[in-house]
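Follow-up to my post from last week.
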Amino acid sequence: MKQSDATGLHGFLTGNGKQETGNCIFCGSMALGAVNNPDLNRYHQTKEQIFNESQIIEEARKDPGRFGILYEKYYRQIFVFVFRRTGDEDIAGDIVSDAFLKAMVALPKFEFKGLPFSAWLFRIALNEVNMYYRKSSRDRVISLDQTNLTDVIAEAGGEKESEENRQLVMKLLSTLTAEEMQMMELRFFEKRAFAEVGEILGITENNAKVKTYRIIDKLKAALKKTDM
Amino acid sequence: MSGYKFNIDPRPPKEEKIAEHRDFGKVMHNYKRMTNPLYRTPLYRYRKIFLGLLLVLVVAFIVSEYGEEHEQEMKQHKADSIRTADSVAKKIERDRAH
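User reply:
Got it. Predicted complex:
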């Protein structure tokens, strides 16, 4: 498994977009260099940042108006996260508003586990996206880069990289279930760490690893049949 | 491909659109509306509760009307039976006197 997210992607973005340095609680690595793609919702934070955030959460529990700080901090990240899954700004805007409203209402139930608050927000946003697709008859939008497809081909053991193979991989990807596709999106198309994937999907890190490898095995077997 | 629409190399969302939808005031307003106790909000805002309550009132009215009608019928029936019993008793007394 490639560990591309352990290289230059671990920038620590603060609410105002500035980078900070420190050890990421997910991978322990230092924040080095620029964030390759700030749109890909990096939420790696230092212990200090997470502690400061927990204090804001406590304040927001007593005074809902204080939730505005968290709203401003994470709005863009959540918006991009939802936009990648809907492909429409207006639909994303509505879903994000609902997600933040639900987060505000459920804030008293939020349990601080020493993880970034954004993980909880991503989970709520993902549930809202799933709910949107359950209600509508639209096809799920899967956003990915050409390089993501190349990575998937390499992971699945494919050697040749051609347009034909890309089409084949996309065809195989379309046979995955919604749950499997979410895993692929988080891990391969957005390059998130397993701990993040687990936290967003509400499963353990190990479970996330096992499920991801099962999907890769499934793709490998399917590719073998096609003699790619 | 069924169920999925692949968006290869997607464009990032438009900044003006993000700014357009970014409105904490609206979220706060909805939050207050959602968490407000029932008595502070007019009942007609809660359509289901309003319709449910209306249905209960209509059923209660029908039951009470039916009950009242039934009670009157019973009273009438009782009065009729007393009257019949009286007339029978009078007739028996009259027969005895003869």
